[in-house]
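Build the 3D complex.
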Amino acid sequence: MDFVQVSEEEGDEPIELPAEEDGTLLLSTLQAQFPGSCGLKYRNMDTKAVRGVRSNEGRLFPPSVDSGWGEYIYFCVFPKENKRKSDDNLENSTAKTKRIETRLRCTDLIVLGLPWKTTEDSLREYFESFGEVLMAQIKKDVKSGQSKGFGFVRFGSYEAQMRVLSNRHLIDGRWCEVKVPNSKGMGHQVPCKVFVGRCTEDINSDDLREYFSKFGEVTDVFIPRPFRAFSFVTFLDPDVAQSLCGEDHIIKGVSVHVSNAAPKAEQNRNHQGQSYNYNTGNSFGMHSYHHPQGNHINSGRSGHHRVTFQGGNFLSWMAQNGGHSNANNLNNCGGGGGGGGGRKGSNNPNNSGSSGMNKVDNSACNDQQNGCAPGNSGWSNQSSGSQNSVDKSNFL
DNA sequence: GTTGAGCGTT
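Done.
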């Protein structure tokens, strides 16, 4: 059996991890030793550069077909906290403040599928490897004190929360899932959509798309008809939308104002014969595909469903979907088309998050009959676009 | 003492 030497960071003491018979290393094997890790990289001896290890379907592939993993010492890749580099200094302080308010807020997370035997102490102990645990509780039957098999955790850092949401968890011998609780609703999630006021009639969808694409990928543009001097622009990344709010921008010589696309529930309902379907409950984060009618201009790659992260972030979306990113046309590459690279760039963490959700490592789990975590009947198939609600107008 | 999709007596 081949072993792969892996350390958490370059220079650390490596641990030898067993590779599979086909030479690949299961991401789940990696994550069992390095919770929260999402991939591997190594230092290339010749070029001195760091190279990433290919990752697909929950498996990591050796750099060389012939010599396998070789004598390299690999080190872990973790989902990055969303950081931007060069363009950070271009940003004004209000946008920064807004991001901190919206991005770095932790919420209670629900842990489903806990073994009956798990205690609040062991729950806390497990999650402390991800970061500071502010709260860990098990829901119990009041009379018997028996665990109901789920609980809640709260982390002190958003990064820890992100890492936890991006993985499944083997807790006291059972695979559990961690999600943002439904009870949180859509309340304080970060919208992807902005309101663009002071538009003139000659600013069309293409103009808006072209202009705003330089800040990040635009997934939708909506201009009410007849002309009403405003429009809506939806971004793939809610942070990009947030960072633009409050700003004035000049498009075709016109100063437009960007602000929050405040929900206008009642007044917009059934306006002009359109019906507004609101995403509620579990479908948060997935307003998906806009029907190609009306004034929505889908992002060019028509014919496929597009997935945007209307609420929360990519990772919580991933978590909500069992870690699978098999939705159609999920695009992780950030700023499309514009110059300048965008405000946020391509830092969606952990695109290898489609990890581990295969039969192979589910079979290794649990002490129950079929050995699978709740909600995962072997495969996590919740997100394949087909069951996304179709949101026709999406006024938020 | 059993059980296995869900959503929190504050």
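Residues 81-103, 265-295, 297-365, 367-396 of chain A have pLDDT under 50 and may be disordered.
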